[in-house]
Amino acid sequence: MPFCPPYDTSRPPLYLFYLLFCFFSLISGIQPADLQILMKLKSALQTSDGSSAFKSWESSNSMCNFTGITCNSDGSVTEIELSRQNLTGVLPLDSICQLQSLEKLSFGFNNLHGPIMDDLNNCVKLLYLDLGNNLFSGWSAPDISSLSQLQYLYLNRSGLSGSFPWKSLQNMTGLVRLSLGHNLFNPSPFPNDVLQLTNLTWIHLSNCSIQGTIPAEIGNLKELINLELSNNNMTGEIPVEIGNLVNLWQLHLFNNSFTGKLPVGLRNLSKLERFDVSMNSIEGDLSVLRFLSNLVSLELFENKFSGQIPAEFGEFKKLVNLTLNKNNLTGPLPQNLGSWARVDKISVSYNFFTGPIPPDMCKQGTIKGLYMHHNSLTGEIPANFVNCSTLLEFRINDNLLSGTVPAGIWGLPNLRIFDISFNSIEGPITSDIKHAKSLVALRAENNRLSGELPLEISEATSLVSILLSDNLLQGKLLIPTSPITNFRISDNRLTGEIPYMICNLSFLRIFDVSNNNLSGLHSLLRVRGMSLYLTAKHWNHRMVWRVGNAHCLKSEDTQVQILLILFISVQAELLDHVSLSILNDNLYTCWKWQFAL
Protein backbone atom coordinates (compact mmCIF):
# COMPACT_ATOMS: atom_id res chain seq x y z
CA MET A 1 0.00 0.00 0.00
CA PRO A 2 1.35 3.52 -0.82
CA PHE A 3 3.06 5.28 2.08
CA CYS A 4 2.54 9.04 2.82
CA PRO A 5 5.46 10.60 4.79
CA PRO A 6 4.90 13.19 7.56
CA TYR A 7 4.11 16.68 6.33
CA ASP A 8 4.27 20.15 7.86
CA THR A 9 0.58 21.01 8.49
CA SER A 10 1.41 24.72 8.97
CA ARG A 11 1.23 25.20 5.19
CA PRO A 12 -2.55 24.69 4.40
CA PRO A 13 -2.66 24.93 0.56
CA LEU A 14 0.11 22.45 0.09
CA TYR A 15 -1.30 20.27 2.87
CA LEU A 16 -4.61 19.93 1.00
CA PHE A 17 -2.76 18.88 -2.11
CA TYR A 18 -0.82 16.40 0.00
CA LEU A 19 -4.06 14.79 1.29
CA LEU A 20 -5.44 14.42 -2.22
CA PHE A 21 -2.21 12.80 -3.31
CA CYS A 22 -2.42 10.26 -0.48
CA PHE A 23 -6.10 9.52 -1.20
CA PHE A 24 -5.54 8.74 -4.87
CA SER A 25 -2.45 6.76 -4.02
CA LEU A 26 -4.57 4.64 -1.68
CA ILE A 27 -7.19 4.05 -4.41
CA SER A 28 -4.56 3.12 -6.93
CA GLY A 29 -3.34 0.50 -4.48
CA ILE A 30 -6.81 -1.02 -3.90
CA GLN A 31 -7.98 -1.25 -7.48
CA PRO A 32 -5.12 -3.37 -8.88
CA ALA A 33 -5.54 -5.81 -5.97
CA ASP A 34 -9.28 -6.13 -6.61
CA LEU A 35 -8.66 -6.57 -10.33
CA GLN A 36 -6.19 -9.38 -9.70
CA ILE A 37 -8.74 -11.16 -7.50
CA LEU A 38 -11.41 -10.90 -10.20
CA MET A 39 -9.02 -12.25 -12.82
CA LYS A 40 -8.28 -15.21 -10.55
CA LEU A 41 -12.02 -15.79 -10.17
CA LYS A 42 -12.44 -15.75 -13.94
CA SER A 43 -9.68 -18.32 -14.43
CA ALA A 44 -11.17 -20.63 -11.76
CA LEU A 45 -14.61 -20.88 -13.36
CA GLN A 46 -15.77 -22.10 -16.74
CA THR A 47 -18.75 -20.96 -18.74
CA SER A 48 -20.93 -23.01 -21.03
CA ASP A 49 -21.30 -22.22 -24.71
CA GLY A 50 -23.24 -19.05 -25.25
CA SER A 51 -22.68 -17.61 -21.78
CA SER A 52 -21.51 -14.01 -21.79
CA ALA A 53 -20.63 -13.84 -18.11
CA PHE A 54 -16.92 -13.11 -18.58
CA LYS A 55 -16.86 -11.53 -22.04
CA SER A 56 -16.40 -8.08 -20.57
CA TRP A 57 -13.87 -9.28 -18.00
CA GLU A 58 -10.78 -8.01 -19.77
CA SER A 59 -7.93 -6.12 -18.13
CA SER A 60 -8.32 -3.42 -20.75
CA ASN A 61 -11.78 -2.61 -19.37
CA SER A 62 -12.59 -0.96 -16.09
CA MET A 63 -13.40 -3.72 -13.62
CA CYS A 64 -16.39 -1.69 -12.42
CA ASN A 65 -17.89 -2.27 -15.88
CA PHE A 66 -17.43 -6.03 -15.72
CA THR A 67 -20.65 -8.03 -15.99
CA GLY A 68 -22.00 -8.64 -12.49
CA ILE A 69 -19.60 -6.30 -10.72
CA THR A 70 -20.61 -3.24 -8.70
CA CYS A 71 -18.13 -0.81 -7.19
CA ASN A 72 -18.44 1.92 -4.59
CA SER A 73 -17.38 5.54 -5.04
CA ASP A 74 -13.71 4.80 -4.38
CA GLY A 75 -13.65 2.06 -7.02
CA SER A 76 -13.61 -0.93 -4.69
CA VAL A 77 -15.69 -4.03 -5.51
CA THR A 78 -18.81 -4.24 -3.33
CA GLU A 79 -20.94 -6.75 -5.23
CA ILE A 80 -20.41 -9.88 -7.32
CA GLU A 81 -23.72 -10.91 -8.92
CA LEU A 82 -23.21 -13.89 -11.22
CA SER A 83 -26.36 -15.91 -10.65
CA ARG A 84 -27.82 -17.96 -13.51
CA GLN A 85 -24.70 -17.76 -15.69
CA ASN A 86 -24.15 -21.51 -16.29
CA LEU A 87 -20.86 -21.41 -14.43
CA THR A 88 -18.93 -24.51 -13.38
CA GLY A 89 -15.88 -25.00 -11.21
CA VAL A 90 -14.79 -24.43 -7.62
CA LEU A 91 -15.21 -21.01 -6.05
CA PRO A 92 -11.83 -19.55 -4.96
CA LEU A 93 -13.22 -18.15 -1.72
CA ASP A 94 -9.72 -17.72 -0.32
CA SER A 95 -9.13 -14.91 -2.81
CA ILE A 96 -12.71 -13.63 -3.16
CA CYS A 97 -12.87 -12.86 0.55
CA GLN A 98 -9.80 -10.64 0.21
CA LEU A 99 -12.10 -8.08 -1.41
CA GLN A 100 -12.21 -5.78 1.59
CA SER A 101 -15.42 -3.96 0.64
CA LEU A 102 -17.43 -6.97 -0.57
CA GLU A 103 -21.05 -6.84 0.64
CA LYS A 104 -22.83 -9.09 -1.84
CA LEU A 105 -21.73 -12.48 -3.16
CA SER A 106 -24.28 -14.16 -5.41
CA PHE A 107 -23.63 -17.33 -7.44
CA GLY A 108 -27.06 -18.96 -7.24
CA PHE A 109 -28.41 -21.25 -9.99
CA ASN A 110 -25.09 -22.37 -11.44
CA ASN A 111 -23.23 -25.69 -11.51
CA LEU A 112 -20.53 -24.96 -8.97
CA HIS A 113 -19.03 -27.89 -7.07
CA GLY A 114 -16.40 -28.73 -4.52
CA PRO A 115 -16.40 -27.53 -0.91
CA ILE A 116 -17.62 -24.20 0.41
CA MET A 117 -14.34 -23.40 2.10
CA ASP A 118 -13.90 -22.01 5.60
CA ASP A 119 -12.34 -18.96 3.95
CA LEU A 120 -15.91 -17.74 3.58
CA ASN A 121 -15.58 -16.58 7.18
CA ASN A 122 -13.21 -13.86 5.97
CA CYS A 123 -15.98 -12.12 4.02
CA VAL A 124 -16.89 -10.29 7.20
CA LYS A 125 -18.70 -7.39 5.53
CA LEU A 126 -21.15 -9.56 3.61
CA LEU A 127 -24.77 -8.50 3.77
CA TYR A 128 -25.99 -10.87 1.04
CA LEU A 129 -24.81 -14.43 0.36
CA ASP A 130 -26.39 -16.68 -2.28
CA LEU A 131 -24.77 -20.00 -3.16
CA GLY A 132 -28.06 -21.84 -3.57
CA ASN A 133 -29.02 -24.17 -6.41
CA ASN A 134 -25.53 -25.51 -7.04
CA LEU A 135 -23.77 -28.88 -6.81
CA PHE A 136 -21.73 -28.83 -3.61
CA SER A 137 -22.66 -32.49 -3.09
CA GLY A 138 -21.04 -34.38 -0.25
CA TRP A 139 -19.77 -31.30 1.56
CA SER A 140 -20.87 -29.81 4.86
CA ALA A 141 -21.77 -26.18 5.35
CA PRO A 142 -18.87 -24.28 6.95
CA ASP A 143 -19.11 -22.31 10.15
CA ILE A 144 -20.09 -18.78 9.17
CA SER A 145 -20.35 -17.22 12.62
CA SER A 146 -18.10 -14.30 11.65
CA LEU A 147 -20.64 -13.09 9.07
CA SER A 148 -22.50 -11.16 11.74
CA GLN A 149 -23.72 -8.45 9.35
CA LEU A 150 -25.45 -10.91 7.04
CA GLN A 151 -29.05 -10.06 6.12
CA TYR A 152 -29.74 -12.54 3.30
CA LEU A 153 -28.55 -16.16 3.37
CA TYR A 154 -29.44 -18.51 0.50
CA LEU A 155 -27.92 -22.01 0.55
CA ASN A 156 -31.03 -23.89 -0.59
CA ARG A 157 -30.68 -26.78 -3.06
CA SER A 158 -26.91 -26.57 -2.93
CA GLY A 159 -26.19 -30.27 -2.33
CA LEU A 160 -24.90 -29.76 1.21
CA SER A 161 -25.06 -32.58 3.74
CA GLY A 162 -23.97 -33.43 7.27
CA SER A 163 -24.70 -31.24 10.27
CA PHE A 164 -25.59 -27.63 9.69
CA PRO A 165 -23.86 -25.21 12.11
CA TRP A 166 -27.07 -23.66 13.46
CA LYS A 167 -25.19 -21.85 16.25
CA SER A 168 -23.31 -19.83 13.65
CA LEU A 169 -26.57 -17.95 13.05
CA GLN A 170 -26.72 -16.61 16.62
CA ASN A 171 -24.87 -13.37 15.90
CA MET A 172 -26.79 -12.60 12.70
CA THR A 173 -29.34 -10.45 14.48
CA GLY A 174 -30.07 -8.51 11.31
CA LEU A 175 -30.87 -11.62 9.24
CA VAL A 176 -33.98 -11.05 7.15
CA ARG A 177 -34.07 -14.09 4.86
CA LEU A 178 -32.94 -17.63 5.68
CA SER A 179 -33.19 -20.22 2.91
CA LEU A 180 -31.56 -23.60 3.55
CA GLY A 181 -34.18 -25.95 2.15
CA HIS A 182 -33.62 -29.09 0.07
CA ASN A 183 -30.29 -30.18 1.52
CA LEU A 184 -29.42 -33.56 3.06
CA PHE A 185 -28.61 -32.30 6.53
CA ASN A 186 -28.49 -34.68 9.47
CA PRO A 187 -31.84 -34.98 11.28
CA SER A 188 -32.33 -32.35 13.95
CA PRO A 189 -35.17 -30.61 15.79
CA PHE A 190 -36.30 -27.16 14.76
CA PRO A 191 -33.23 -24.99 15.55
CA ASN A 192 -33.72 -22.76 18.58
CA ASP A 193 -31.08 -20.40 17.21
CA VAL A 194 -33.46 -19.43 14.43
CA LEU A 195 -36.17 -18.54 16.95
CA GLN A 196 -33.97 -15.72 18.28
CA LEU A 197 -33.75 -13.95 14.92
CA THR A 198 -36.75 -11.68 15.32
CA ASN A 199 -36.07 -9.68 12.14
CA LEU A 200 -36.65 -12.70 9.92
CA THR A 201 -39.27 -12.25 7.23
CA TRP A 202 -38.49 -15.43 5.27
CA ILE A 203 -37.77 -18.98 6.48
CA HIS A 204 -37.32 -21.77 3.95
CA LEU A 205 -36.35 -25.00 5.73
CA SER A 206 -38.27 -27.51 3.63
CA ASN A 207 -36.72 -30.93 2.98
CA CYS A 208 -33.74 -30.60 5.28
CA SER A 209 -34.46 -33.37 7.81
CA ILE A 210 -36.07 -31.33 10.56
CA GLN A 211 -37.99 -33.51 12.98
CA GLY A 212 -40.19 -33.06 16.03
CA THR A 213 -42.72 -30.32 16.66
CA ILE A 214 -42.93 -26.69 15.63
CA PRO A 215 -41.90 -24.77 18.78
CA ALA A 216 -44.47 -22.40 20.27
CA GLU A 217 -41.80 -19.68 20.12
CA ILE A 218 -42.35 -19.51 16.36
CA GLY A 219 -45.06 -17.03 17.26
CA ASN A 220 -42.37 -14.53 18.29
CA LEU A 221 -41.17 -14.10 14.71
CA LYS A 222 -43.88 -11.59 13.95
CA GLU A 223 -42.18 -10.14 10.88
CA LEU A 224 -42.47 -13.43 8.98
CA ILE A 225 -44.18 -13.28 5.61
CA ASN A 226 -43.04 -16.76 4.50
CA LEU A 227 -42.68 -20.00 6.48
CA GLU A 228 -41.80 -23.21 4.62
CA LEU A 229 -41.26 -26.43 6.59
CA SER A 230 -42.52 -28.97 4.06
CA ASN A 231 -41.09 -32.43 3.32
CA ASN A 232 -39.62 -32.98 6.76
CA ASN A 233 -40.35 -35.40 9.60
CA MET A 234 -42.31 -33.01 11.77
CA THR A 235 -45.01 -34.25 14.12
CA GLY A 236 -47.58 -33.02 16.59
CA GLU A 237 -50.14 -30.28 16.13
CA ILE A 238 -49.68 -26.96 14.40
CA PRO A 239 -49.14 -24.61 17.36
CA VAL A 240 -51.78 -22.01 18.16
CA GLU A 241 -49.00 -19.40 18.20
CA ILE A 242 -48.97 -19.57 14.40
CA GLY A 243 -51.91 -17.21 14.71
CA ASN A 244 -49.52 -14.49 15.91
CA LEU A 245 -47.82 -14.34 12.51
CA VAL A 246 -50.30 -11.86 11.12
CA ASN A 247 -48.01 -10.83 8.25
CA LEU A 248 -47.77 -14.32 6.77
CA TRP A 249 -48.23 -14.46 3.03
CA GLN A 250 -47.23 -18.10 2.53
CA LEU A 251 -47.41 -21.07 4.93
CA HIS A 252 -46.22 -24.43 3.57
CA LEU A 253 -46.23 -27.45 5.90
CA PHE A 254 -47.04 -30.25 3.45
CA ASN A 255 -45.72 -33.83 3.59
CA ASN A 256 -45.05 -34.13 7.29
CA SER A 257 -46.86 -36.06 10.03
CA PHE A 258 -48.86 -33.27 11.63
CA THR A 259 -52.00 -34.30 13.49
CA GLY A 260 -54.86 -32.63 15.33
CA LYS A 261 -57.02 -29.82 14.03
CA LEU A 262 -56.23 -26.55 12.34
CA PRO A 263 -55.57 -23.98 15.10
CA VAL A 264 -58.27 -21.38 15.61
CA GLY A 265 -55.65 -18.64 15.35
CA LEU A 266 -55.36 -19.21 11.62
CA ARG A 267 -58.36 -16.94 11.25
CA ASN A 268 -56.03 -14.04 12.15
CA LEU A 269 -53.85 -14.55 9.08
CA SER A 270 -55.83 -12.21 6.86
CA LYS A 271 -52.84 -11.61 4.56
CA LEU A 272 -52.31 -15.31 3.86
CA GLU A 273 -52.41 -16.12 0.14
CA ARG A 274 -50.80 -19.56 -0.06
CA PHE A 275 -51.60 -22.28 2.47
CA ASP A 276 -50.50 -25.90 1.99
CA VAL A 277 -50.81 -28.57 4.68
CA SER A 278 -51.42 -31.46 2.29
CA MET A 279 -50.12 -34.99 2.95
CA ASN A 280 -50.47 -34.94 6.73
CA SER A 281 -53.01 -36.45 9.15
CA ILE A 282 -54.90 -33.31 10.11
CA GLU A 283 -58.57 -33.74 10.95
CA GLY A 284 -61.60 -31.63 11.78
CA ASP A 285 -63.54 -29.22 9.61
CA LEU A 286 -62.46 -26.27 7.48
CA SER A 287 -64.52 -23.59 9.22
CA VAL A 288 -61.50 -21.64 10.47
CA LEU A 289 -60.44 -21.03 6.86
CA ARG A 290 -63.60 -19.20 5.88
CA PHE A 291 -62.06 -15.92 7.08
CA LEU A 292 -59.04 -16.12 4.75
CA SER A 293 -60.57 -14.27 1.84
CA ASN A 294 -57.19 -13.37 0.30
CA LEU A 295 -56.27 -16.98 -0.39
CA VAL A 296 -54.86 -17.61 -3.86
CA SER A 297 -53.86 -21.24 -3.36
CA LEU A 298 -55.33 -23.65 -0.80
CA GLU A 299 -53.96 -27.21 -0.79
CA LEU A 300 -55.28 -29.64 1.83
CA PHE A 301 -55.21 -32.96 -0.02
CA GLU A 302 -54.47 -36.32 1.63
CA ASN A 303 -55.57 -35.52 5.16
CA LYS A 304 -58.53 -36.51 7.33
CA PHE A 305 -60.62 -33.37 7.03
CA SER A 306 -64.37 -33.84 7.38
CA GLY A 307 -67.53 -31.77 7.21
CA GLN A 308 -68.59 -29.43 4.44
CA ILE A 309 -66.72 -26.88 2.39
CA PRO A 310 -67.52 -23.44 3.86
CA ALA A 311 -69.86 -21.48 1.62
CA GLU A 312 -67.42 -18.55 1.82
CA PHE A 313 -65.00 -20.43 -0.45
CA GLY A 314 -67.35 -19.63 -3.29
CA GLU A 315 -66.89 -15.92 -2.59
CA PHE A 316 -63.09 -15.88 -2.55
CA LYS A 317 -62.20 -13.58 -5.42
CA LYS A 318 -58.50 -14.48 -5.61
CA LEU A 319 -58.67 -18.27 -5.25
CA VAL A 320 -56.87 -19.79 -8.23
CA ASN A 321 -55.95 -23.25 -6.92
CA LEU A 322 -58.18 -25.35 -4.64
CA THR A 323 -57.00 -28.90 -3.91
CA LEU A 324 -59.04 -30.91 -1.41
CA ASN A 325 -58.82 -34.44 -2.81
CA LYS A 326 -58.50 -37.56 -0.64
CA ASN A 327 -60.24 -36.39 2.52
CA ASN A 328 -63.55 -37.24 4.18
CA LEU A 329 -65.44 -34.13 3.14
CA THR A 330 -69.19 -34.33 2.65
CA GLY A 331 -72.22 -32.34 1.57
CA PRO A 332 -72.74 -30.22 -1.54
CA LEU A 333 -70.12 -28.10 -3.22
CA PRO A 334 -70.71 -24.33 -2.97
CA GLN A 335 -72.67 -23.56 -6.12
CA ASN A 336 -70.72 -20.37 -6.83
CA LEU A 337 -67.37 -22.13 -6.43
CA GLY A 338 -64.93 -20.74 -8.97
CA SER A 339 -67.34 -18.14 -10.30
CA TRP A 340 -65.49 -15.10 -8.94
CA ALA A 341 -61.82 -15.96 -9.22
CA ARG A 342 -59.69 -16.63 -12.29
CA VAL A 343 -59.47 -20.29 -11.33
CA ASP A 344 -56.69 -22.50 -12.69
CA LYS A 345 -57.39 -25.79 -10.90
CA ILE A 346 -60.09 -27.30 -8.69
CA SER A 347 -59.58 -30.80 -7.31
CA VAL A 348 -62.16 -32.28 -4.92
CA SER A 349 -61.86 -35.94 -5.92
CA TYR A 350 -61.96 -38.93 -3.57
CA ASN A 351 -64.36 -37.42 -1.05
CA PHE A 352 -68.05 -37.93 -0.30
CA PHE A 353 -69.53 -34.86 -1.95
CA THR A 354 -73.15 -34.96 -3.08
CA GLY A 355 -75.41 -32.75 -5.13
CA PRO A 356 -74.84 -31.06 -8.49
CA ILE A 357 -71.68 -29.79 -10.13
CA PRO A 358 -71.30 -26.02 -9.58
CA PRO A 359 -72.28 -24.45 -12.92
CA ASP A 360 -69.94 -21.46 -13.15
CA MET A 361 -66.46 -22.90 -12.74
CA CYS A 362 -65.56 -21.80 -16.27
CA LYS A 363 -67.11 -18.36 -15.93
CA GLN A 364 -63.77 -16.54 -15.91
CA GLY A 365 -62.38 -18.53 -18.85
CA THR A 366 -59.15 -19.60 -17.16
CA ILE A 367 -59.62 -23.06 -15.65
CA LYS A 368 -57.23 -25.78 -16.82
CA GLY A 369 -57.84 -28.69 -14.45
CA LEU A 370 -61.19 -29.87 -13.04
CA TYR A 371 -61.07 -33.04 -10.95
CA MET A 372 -64.29 -34.16 -9.27
CA HIS A 373 -64.04 -37.93 -9.66
CA HIS A 374 -64.85 -40.55 -7.03
CA ASN A 375 -67.64 -38.74 -5.22
CA SER A 376 -71.42 -39.10 -5.20
CA LEU A 377 -72.29 -36.09 -7.34
CA THR A 378 -75.66 -36.12 -9.08
CA GLY A 379 -77.41 -34.24 -11.85
CA GLU A 380 -76.05 -33.35 -15.27
CA ILE A 381 -72.91 -31.80 -16.66
CA PRO A 382 -73.66 -28.05 -16.68
CA ALA A 383 -74.53 -26.80 -20.16
CA ASN A 384 -72.28 -23.76 -19.92
CA PHE A 385 -69.22 -25.98 -19.57
CA VAL A 386 -69.12 -25.79 -23.36
CA ASN A 387 -67.34 -22.48 -22.70
CA CYS A 388 -64.45 -24.21 -20.89
CA SER A 389 -62.12 -23.62 -23.82
CA THR A 390 -59.02 -23.48 -21.59
CA LEU A 391 -59.73 -26.83 -19.91
CA LEU A 392 -56.92 -29.39 -20.22
CA GLU A 393 -58.19 -32.15 -17.94
CA PHE A 394 -61.82 -32.83 -17.01
CA ARG A 395 -62.42 -35.82 -14.75
CA ILE A 396 -65.87 -36.50 -13.29
CA ASN A 397 -65.74 -40.30 -13.39
CA ASP A 398 -67.12 -42.53 -10.65
CA ASN A 399 -70.08 -40.39 -9.64
CA LEU A 400 -73.86 -40.67 -10.02
CA LEU A 401 -74.21 -38.25 -12.93
CA SER A 402 -76.90 -38.60 -15.59
CA GLY A 403 -78.21 -36.79 -18.66
CA THR A 404 -76.24 -36.17 -21.83
CA VAL A 405 -72.88 -34.60 -22.50
CA PRO A 406 -73.53 -31.08 -23.85
CA ALA A 407 -72.47 -31.22 -27.48
CA GLY A 408 -69.69 -28.64 -27.36
CA ILE A 409 -67.85 -30.44 -24.58
CA TRP A 410 -66.90 -33.32 -26.88
CA GLY A 411 -64.96 -30.83 -28.99
CA LEU A 412 -63.20 -28.65 -26.41
CA PRO A 413 -60.06 -27.61 -28.33
CA ASN A 414 -57.47 -27.85 -25.56
CA LEU A 415 -58.86 -30.81 -23.62
CA ARG A 416 -56.31 -33.63 -23.21
CA ILE A 417 -58.10 -35.96 -20.78
CA PHE A 418 -61.89 -36.35 -20.69
CA ASP A 419 -63.10 -38.96 -18.21
CA ILE A 420 -66.83 -39.49 -17.57
CA SER A 421 -66.61 -43.23 -16.92
CA PHE A 422 -68.74 -45.06 -14.36
CA ASN A 423 -71.77 -42.79 -14.37
CA SER A 424 -75.20 -43.04 -16.00
CA ILE A 425 -74.58 -40.60 -18.82
CA GLU A 426 -76.50 -41.25 -22.02
CA GLY A 427 -76.84 -39.98 -25.57
CA PRO A 428 -74.42 -40.02 -28.50
CA ILE A 429 -70.83 -38.99 -28.98
CA THR A 430 -71.43 -36.01 -31.22
CA SER A 431 -69.60 -35.04 -34.39
CA ASP A 432 -68.02 -31.97 -32.82
CA ILE A 433 -65.39 -34.31 -31.38
CA LYS A 434 -63.51 -33.45 -34.57
CA HIS A 435 -62.51 -30.18 -32.88
CA ALA A 436 -60.81 -32.03 -30.00
CA LYS A 437 -57.39 -31.80 -31.60
CA SER A 438 -55.59 -32.06 -28.25
CA LEU A 439 -57.58 -34.98 -26.85
CA VAL A 440 -55.26 -37.82 -25.79
CA ALA A 441 -57.50 -39.94 -23.57
CA LEU A 442 -61.27 -40.44 -23.89
CA ARG A 443 -62.69 -42.52 -21.06
CA ALA A 444 -66.42 -43.12 -21.02
CA GLU A 445 -66.86 -46.79 -20.12
CA ASN A 446 -69.75 -47.98 -17.96
CA ASN A 447 -72.35 -45.43 -19.01
CA ARG A 448 -75.42 -45.50 -21.27
CA LEU A 449 -73.94 -43.87 -24.35
CA SER A 450 -75.80 -44.83 -27.51
CA GLY A 451 -75.77 -44.31 -31.26
CA GLU A 452 -72.90 -44.89 -33.66
CA LEU A 453 -69.33 -43.75 -33.34
CA PRO A 454 -69.09 -40.57 -35.42
CA LEU A 455 -66.79 -40.63 -38.41
CA GLU A 456 -65.36 -37.37 -37.12
CA ILE A 457 -63.61 -39.16 -34.26
CA SER A 458 -60.82 -39.85 -36.75
CA GLU A 459 -60.17 -36.11 -36.87
CA ALA A 460 -59.23 -36.13 -33.18
CA THR A 461 -55.69 -36.89 -34.26
CA SER A 462 -54.03 -36.93 -30.83
CA LEU A 463 -56.11 -39.76 -29.39
CA VAL A 464 -54.02 -42.50 -27.79
CA SER A 465 -56.51 -44.16 -25.45
CA ILE A 466 -60.23 -44.76 -26.09
CA LEU A 467 -62.23 -46.57 -23.41
CA LEU A 468 -65.89 -47.01 -24.35
CA SER A 469 -66.72 -50.45 -22.97
CA ASP A 470 -70.05 -51.24 -21.30
CA ASN A 471 -72.29 -48.81 -23.16
CA LEU A 472 -75.10 -49.10 -25.73
CA LEU A 473 -73.11 -48.13 -28.81
CA GLN A 474 -74.16 -49.70 -32.09
CA GLY A 475 -73.33 -49.74 -35.79
CA LYS A 476 -70.01 -50.60 -37.39
CA LEU A 477 -66.69 -50.69 -35.61
CA LEU A 478 -64.86 -47.47 -36.38
CA ILE A 479 -61.19 -47.29 -35.46
CA PRO A 480 -59.51 -43.86 -35.44
CA THR A 481 -56.33 -43.42 -37.42
CA SER A 482 -54.53 -41.64 -34.58
CA PRO A 483 -51.46 -43.34 -32.96
CA ILE A 484 -53.73 -45.26 -30.62
CA THR A 485 -52.31 -47.71 -28.07
CA ASN A 486 -55.37 -48.69 -26.06
CA PHE A 487 -58.77 -49.26 -27.72
CA ARG A 488 -61.52 -50.85 -25.63
CA ILE A 489 -65.11 -50.95 -26.80
CA SER A 490 -66.26 -54.29 -25.42
CA ASP A 491 -69.79 -55.03 -24.23
CA ASN A 492 -71.64 -52.84 -26.71
CA ARG A 493 -73.89 -53.62 -29.71
CA LEU A 494 -71.44 -53.25 -32.56
CA THR A 495 -71.94 -55.24 -35.76
CA GLY A 496 -70.07 -55.92 -38.99
CA GLU A 497 -66.47 -56.88 -39.62
CA ILE A 498 -63.28 -55.91 -37.86
CA PRO A 499 -61.74 -53.54 -40.43
CA TYR A 500 -58.48 -54.35 -42.17
CA MET A 501 -57.03 -50.99 -41.16
CA ILE A 502 -56.30 -52.44 -37.73
CA CYS A 503 -53.18 -53.87 -39.34
CA ASN A 504 -51.84 -50.33 -39.78
CA LEU A 505 -52.05 -49.44 -36.09
CA SER A 506 -48.40 -49.97 -35.27
CA PHE A 507 -48.68 -48.51 -31.76
CA LEU A 508 -51.67 -50.59 -30.68
CA ARG A 509 -51.11 -52.54 -27.48
CA ILE A 510 -54.58 -53.39 -26.21
CA PHE A 511 -57.56 -54.01 -28.51
CA ASP A 512 -60.76 -55.13 -26.80
CA VAL A 513 -63.92 -55.58 -28.86
CA SER A 514 -65.26 -58.55 -26.92
CA ASN A 515 -68.96 -59.13 -26.38
CA ASN A 516 -70.17 -57.43 -29.53
CA ASN A 517 -71.54 -58.99 -32.75
CA LEU A 518 -68.42 -58.64 -34.86
CA SER A 519 -66.95 -60.93 -37.50
CA GLY A 520 -63.90 -60.86 -39.75
CA LEU A 521 -61.32 -62.67 -37.67
CA HIS A 522 -59.09 -62.90 -40.75
CA SER A 523 -58.37 -59.18 -40.39
CA LEU A 524 -56.22 -60.05 -37.42
CA LEU A 525 -53.86 -62.35 -39.30
CA ARG A 526 -51.70 -59.42 -40.33
CA VAL A 527 -51.39 -57.84 -36.91
CA ARG A 528 -47.85 -57.98 -35.59
CA GLY A 529 -46.79 -58.95 -32.11
CA MET A 530 -50.15 -59.92 -30.62
CA SER A 531 -51.27 -62.52 -28.18
CA LEU A 532 -54.86 -63.58 -28.15
CA TYR A 533 -57.76 -63.39 -25.73
CA LEU A 534 -60.82 -65.08 -27.19
CA THR A 535 -64.34 -64.81 -25.88
CA ALA A 536 -67.20 -66.96 -27.13
CA LYS A 537 -70.19 -64.68 -26.96
CA HIS A 538 -72.84 -67.32 -26.42
CA TRP A 539 -70.98 -69.22 -23.73
CA ASN A 540 -71.75 -68.68 -20.08
CA HIS A 541 -68.07 -68.20 -19.30
CA ARG A 542 -64.98 -67.01 -21.10
CA MET A 543 -62.80 -69.45 -22.93
CA VAL A 544 -59.32 -67.98 -22.80
CA TRP A 545 -56.15 -68.74 -24.68
CA ARG A 546 -53.47 -66.37 -23.58
CA VAL A 547 -49.74 -65.97 -23.78
CA GLY A 548 -48.34 -63.56 -21.23
CA ASN A 549 -45.35 -61.28 -21.56
CA ALA A 550 -43.06 -63.75 -19.83
CA HIS A 551 -43.73 -66.64 -22.27
CA CYS A 552 -42.20 -67.07 -25.70
CA LEU A 553 -42.93 -69.31 -28.66
CA LYS A 554 -39.71 -70.94 -29.85
CA SER A 555 -38.83 -72.27 -33.30
CA GLU A 556 -35.35 -72.89 -34.67
CA ASP A 557 -33.59 -70.68 -32.08
CA THR A 558 -35.94 -67.81 -32.84
CA GLN A 559 -38.13 -66.34 -30.12
CA VAL A 560 -41.36 -64.61 -30.88
CA GLN A 561 -42.01 -62.35 -27.88
CA ILE A 562 -45.67 -61.86 -27.12
CA LEU A 563 -46.13 -58.19 -26.35
CA LEU A 564 -49.80 -57.56 -26.77
CA ILE A 565 -53.07 -58.93 -25.46
CA LEU A 566 -55.75 -58.94 -28.10
CA PHE A 567 -59.36 -59.25 -27.05
CA ILE A 568 -61.77 -60.53 -29.69
CA SER A 569 -65.41 -61.48 -29.54
CA VAL A 570 -66.42 -64.07 -32.08
CA GLN A 571 -69.21 -66.55 -32.51
CA ALA A 572 -68.57 -69.96 -30.99
CA GLU A 573 -68.78 -71.64 -34.38
CA LEU A 574 -65.80 -69.63 -35.61
CA LEU A 575 -63.58 -71.08 -32.93
CA ASP A 576 -63.50 -74.67 -34.19
CA HIS A 577 -60.14 -74.24 -35.79
CA VAL A 578 -58.17 -70.99 -35.83
CA SER A 579 -54.88 -70.32 -37.53
CA LEU A 580 -53.02 -67.15 -36.62
CA SER A 581 -49.78 -65.70 -37.84
CA ILE A 582 -47.37 -63.85 -35.59
CA LEU A 583 -44.74 -61.83 -37.31
CA ASN A 584 -41.39 -61.67 -35.64
CA ASP A 585 -40.41 -58.01 -35.74
CA ASN A 586 -36.72 -58.86 -35.74
CA LEU A 587 -36.56 -61.46 -38.55
CA TYR A 588 -39.71 -60.52 -40.42
CA THR A 589 -40.58 -64.21 -40.52
CA CYS A 590 -44.14 -65.43 -40.26
CA TRP A 591 -44.62 -68.39 -37.95
CA LYS A 592 -47.90 -70.19 -38.11
CA TRP A 593 -49.37 -72.16 -35.29
CA GLN A 594 -52.72 -73.75 -34.75
CA PHE A 595 -54.89 -74.66 -31.85
CA ALA A 596 -58.33 -76.14 -31.43
CA LEU A 597 -60.87 -75.28 -28.77
Automatic annotation (TrEMBL):
Top-level taxonomic group: Eukaryota
Membrane topology note: Single-pass membrane protein
SUPFAM superfamilies, A to Z: L domain-like
GO molecular function terms attached to this record: ATP binding
Record-annotated Leucine-rich repeat-containing N-terminal plant-type domain positions: 33-72
A GO BP entry: post-embryonic development
Cell compartment(s), UniProt: Membrane
Keyword Chloroplast found: no
The entry's keywords: ATP-binding, Glycoprotein, Leucine-rich repeat, Membrane, Nucleotide-binding, Repeat, Signal, Transmembrane, Transmembrane helix
Membrane-crossing residue ranges in chain numbering: 15-33
GO cellular component: membrane
Record bears the keyword Magnesium: no
Entries under InterPro entries matching the protein: DNA_repair-toleration, Leu-rich_rpt, LRR_dom_sf, LRR_N_plant-typ
Protein name: Leucine-rich repeat-containing N-terminal plant-type domain-containing protein
Organism: Castanea mollissima
